[in-house]
Design a protein that fits this description.
- By secondary structure, the chain is α+β, with helices and mostly antiparallel strands.
- Helices cover about 50% and strands about 15% of the residues.
- The chain has eight helices and seven strands; from the N terminus they run αααββααββαβαββα.
- Strands 4-3-7-6-5 form a five-stranded mixed sheet. A two-stranded antiparallel ribbon has the order 1-2.
- β1 and β2 form a beta hairpin.
- The longest helix is centred in the middle third of the chain and has 46 residues.
- The protein is elongated and about 85 Å long.
Length: about 240
Amino acid sequence: MAVSKEQNTDVQSADSEINDEIVREYLKNHDDFLQRYPDMLDFLHVSHASGSAVSLVEKQVSVMRERSTELRQRLKALSANAKDNDALFEKTRTLVLKLLDANSVEALYSTFITSMAADFNVEHASMILYAKNDNTEGCRTTSHERVKQEIGSLFRGHKAICGTLRTEELIFLFPEGKGVGSAAIMPLGSTEQLGLIAVGSSDANRYNSKTGTLFLAHIADVIVKLLPNLPNTNH
């Protein structure tokens, strides 16, 4: 049947009013469109990365495969993190039990330093307790004023500090450690401070702003609770 000039003009006018955005919105609001008209899948094609055209179904399968691979990788990473956290929790629990058995400040100090190396595989560990005298026998002590002078700028807000420190700061924290690249420092106490604990690594990226300090904070809390009740303490 022939189409009149007037009818043809009406069709062109209708086509001009339909644009990509209208089609897009329609399909978003009618997500069962392709289920109702499955034959349309034969007419819809998208460009492949290689330059060839593939059907919409093939494209959907490809996208689903990519998402599946991404989800598997994320699940694998989460599983690995969970295992690491479980192992870290068990090591922390064991250390806490050892700290509870300490019968003196010196024993507490020795337990912490030894466990960091033997159980946590920490390259460098330090505990500094505030006292009037420097380096009391059996543990490292120094005045609060000296610590503030050496690394006071690190303890703003009395929170854990992780990252690459200045050479003189690292030397103060780890006098016997050479080549320390990064460290994590946790103050012992928030208001009335008793000292600090620190761990260090030769890897400059080992401790950074994204490093979690939950377990180190937990150990610090336990030490803070135990210190005032132990003999031979200057606090």
